[in-house]
Every structure is written in C-alpha cells, then in structure tokens.
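Internal QA ticket QA-208
Title: Verify multi-chain structure generation after dependency bump
Assignee: T.L.

Test input:
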Amino acid sequence: MKTVNFIYAIALLIALVASPALLAQAPARGQGQGGRGGRGAAATEPPPTPRAAAPIDLTGYWVSVITEDWRWRMVTPPKGDYVSIPINVEAKKAADAWDPAKDTAAGDQCKTYGAPGLMRLPTRLHITWQDDTTLKVETDTGTQTRLLHFGDWKPPATGPTRQGNTTAQWETRQGRRGQPPPPPDQRFGNLKTVTTGLMPGYLRKNGVPFSEKTTLTEYWDLLNQPTGEQWIVITTVVEDPTYLSRTWITSLNFKKEANGSKWDPSACEAS
Amino acid sequence: MKISVLTAVAMLVTAPVFAQGQVEAAAAATRGQIVDLAGSWANRLHEDWIERAPGPHIGDYSGLPINDEARAYADLYQVSMQNMPERQCIQYTSQYIVMGPQNLRIEPEVDPISGAIVALHMTGTVDRAPHTVWMDGRPHPSKNSPHSAGGFTTGVWQGGMIAAQTTHLKAGLVWRNGVPHSDQATITEYYARHGDLLTITMILTDPIYYEEPFIRNATFELDPQTRVLPEPCEPQVEIPRPPGEVPHYLPGENPYLREFAETFNLPLEAVRGGAATTYPEYGKKLRATYKPPEKCTVYCCGGTGLTVPNTNNAMCREGDAPPPTP
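Actual output:
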C-alpha cells in the first residue's frame, strides 16, 4: 500500500509540475495576432479593404444540399401548407389566395426568388468579389444576383427591389480598429449581412408571403471539415411585422464545388 | 492493487496531454476565439417541424442520403416497437440534438485553477442522451471501448466556433420512422454563436447506412425560461401484449410505405432518399412532371403559432374557438 501511495504522490507531483510548464507555452495576452502587437507601425496606413481583410474566403461555387425541409424546397408544396413558418392570420389569408397562374400572367414569376425565399431554393451559388467592397452572390436557379455591400455604402433612393439592399460586415474579435488584420491563415470570423428594401414576395413557393417591411439578417459561417470539404452554413433570421408572428429562424448549408461545371442557369417559375 | 498502480501510471502519461489541452484553450482565449455557450437554448423548430415534432410519416426518407441497407432496415419499422417496455428507455444518440424537438442546456465545466473550459456538458432531455464535448485535449478511447448513446466527443476552438468529433456511438434512430445510423457512425460537429442564436451543425458519416455524409443544422435561441426536461425514463406497459410478441413487419409486408408518396403526389423513388435526391439537379428533374395536391391536408399549420385543433388535420385558425361546423 505504501508503494502505491508513493507512486500516486510522484504522479501528482509530475502532473502539477507539467501543467504550469505547458501552460507557459501559451502566448501572453496581447502578443498574438490581432492583440496589441503591431501598434504604431500600421497607424498611418489606410485600413485594409473589406476584400483584403476578409477573415474567411466565401468565393467559389457552392451547391445547396437539401437535407432539411426537402418536401417544401425541392417541389412546390400544396396550397395552404404553412407548416414550420410562424405566420399570422394575415399571412394565412394571403397564402390561401395564392394563384401561380395570376403571378405568371402579371409577369411576377420571380416572387419566390427574392432573397428570403431564394436562398432556400435548390440552387448553386457563385460568389465573387465584384470590387474591393462588394461581394456578389449569383444563383443559377432563377438567375438572380445579390450584392453584399461593405463599408459605408448607402442604399440608392430608388424603390424596393427583388434582392433589396444588403449591407455586409465581417464579424471578428481579432485586431483593433485601424490595425492591419492578421495574416490570412490566422484570421477567423463570419460574415453578417442585413437586407431591407425588398419587394413583397414569397418565403415558400406556395405563396406564403413576406412584405416590403421585411428585414433579412444572415450570418455566414465557413466550416472546414477534417476531410478538406468546406461548407457555408447561413443562419437566417426573417423579421416581418406584417406577416410573421415572430422571427423565422432557419439555417442553410452549401457545399463547396471544385468548379462551375454543374452551373445550370434557369428562369424563375411561379410554381 | 494492480489497478491502482495502473491508474497512477495512466495519470503520469495523460496529465501532460490534458495540460496541453489547457494550453490550447489558453491560446484560443488569447486569440479571442472562445465564445460562451452556457445557458438554456430553445429549439424553435422552424424547419422540419413534422419530422422533429410529431414525427415523420412512415416511409418518408426524403432528403436523407441513405443507401439500400438503411431503407431495408427502416421498411420493417412499426411505431409500436417504441412502446415495448424493453425499448422505451433506449435513448436517442447525440445526432438527435439537431434531429429532435428538444431544447438544450449547455453547462461548461471550468478548471478552477486555470479557468480553462475543460468540457461542455449538454444535458440529456426526455429521451436523448447527455452529450459532453471534452475541450481539454484528451484522446479518444480505444476503438474497442464501449459505445454509448452520447458517444465520445472532443472539441477544439476553430475560427470563433467549436469544431468537435464524436465517435463511439451506439446504433440509433435518425428519424422516428426507423431510419437508422450504425455504431460505426461518426459525427463532425460545429457550434457557432451569433448573439442570442446558436447554430449547431452535425455532419454524420456512416459507412453502413449512408451514401454521403449527412449534414443537418439546428438553430437555437437563448432563452433562460425555456424548459429542458431531464426526465428519467420509467418503462411501463403501455399496450398489453402476449409474452414474446414483438411488433414488426417482415420484409415486403409493411402496408404503409407508399402512403407518404401518394399523399403528396410524389414518385415513390423520390421519397426513398439517396444522395442524388438532395441536389438541385434532382429537383429540376422532379419538378418537370410534378403536380402538387390541390390543397394541404396534413399538418398544414404545425409550428406556425396558429392553433391547430388536431395536429393531424388541415384546420388551423387563430384563437381557441372550435372550428366552424361545415
């Protein structure tokens, strides 16, 4: 028994000695990237552009993999199917009056292809930088283009549009205002976008509506799998005081594709 | 005596490993990567309400990248299996965090000396097993170690979120209509917090039952008043049966497998799942000939907030007044 106690004592001693020694390997606060280091040298340099400061690379071709809400996204659900969406009575009335033939006759086939409905449709995304402050998101389904504007961009004074006005910002806890970002391989964070100025449209192809008062907030995360596979997961919040009884919260996933060989543009369809 | 000596040797070997995990945690904190995930998180069920709340239709495997083995297994399913006393307390495995209806409570375990997060404990609830993500750098156990419903999970801070790997899962049900995963399934998990929202992504890989990794997300909302029910399971006889009777269907004898496809005018092959059915090109092919039913007849208002007098019919209205008599 004495031998065992002695071994325990030695083990505890080594553990206690080893832990602080290893902990000491951690960089001291402020010495890592984005901490206080680097202050001064960059103070006179202009801040990097949003493109240069990007903590994650969202560019490329991405495909939506429909493993959730399959029946409501892959095909047009039956009229009156509002399940999962926190609609109010006004929305129910509007959805019950849905008439795709009427939409087609009015040239309104794209009502499900406004940003809140578009991203849930089965589609591929092609994401590129239009310029240093604008990220462009194109979809082959419905051949739509969303522009995500960084910086001090101000929406035009024109009326609402199908894709609305989207402001974008990188959310990262790294660095300090005015300081250069860490090297690309050490950055992290996510993209937050907020879209307003939307024309009324449909959240779902069977006419569940959203109004021009809708605000769409999206958080874009990049997931790097150990296999090398990459996914974008977009946490999506739709607020609509006209048709929703509370915020509608969903999340979407898009898998990275090697190239645009499967890009297949198609026109909007009303049903 | 031998066990005590072995324990001491194990401490000698593993102490530096755990300490290394604390080093990683300290470095992550310095980089600003650590996000507090503690609290009670409400599951709003704004997607897949039917599958996650009342439960999917028998024979509905839509959107699941499963193979023929999984279909063959699920086709034998009978709901009554679940109320056999022997089966009532079989817990859903950790993937059910994003597949099921329950809320979630996350409790960090913090090292009292260093302040580093040693683990995140996700409490079990109703019939889902507790899930622990170890953040202290400990290795996964031997492949011969026992499997459990919660599995064994280790995580690291990655890009302002937690990336975790789960192994050692018991076989379990993915959906409550018999769609399985095997005990060889592993899960890659991501926990990303945005303000009061927590999005959990789980990518399940299973060489036995899945053609491709199966990705699911669930977004939870921070809500201190949400209910997380840690109900201890007490099996009891719900349906008296003769001794030895086991509810089941033999292969080819399940009479309900076509019901879902017929209700929604979908081709049977489309609702049988498979990786190809989850991509946009499949939807394009399907929509070329698809005609939806004229109106919704099942679960139409589920989860909308409008009152649903009977969740299995189409009526939904505001308030609690009974529906008008036809």
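Spot checks passed. Helices of chain B lie at 2-30, 49-52, 68-74, 96-99, 259-263, 268-271, 280-287.
Status: verified.
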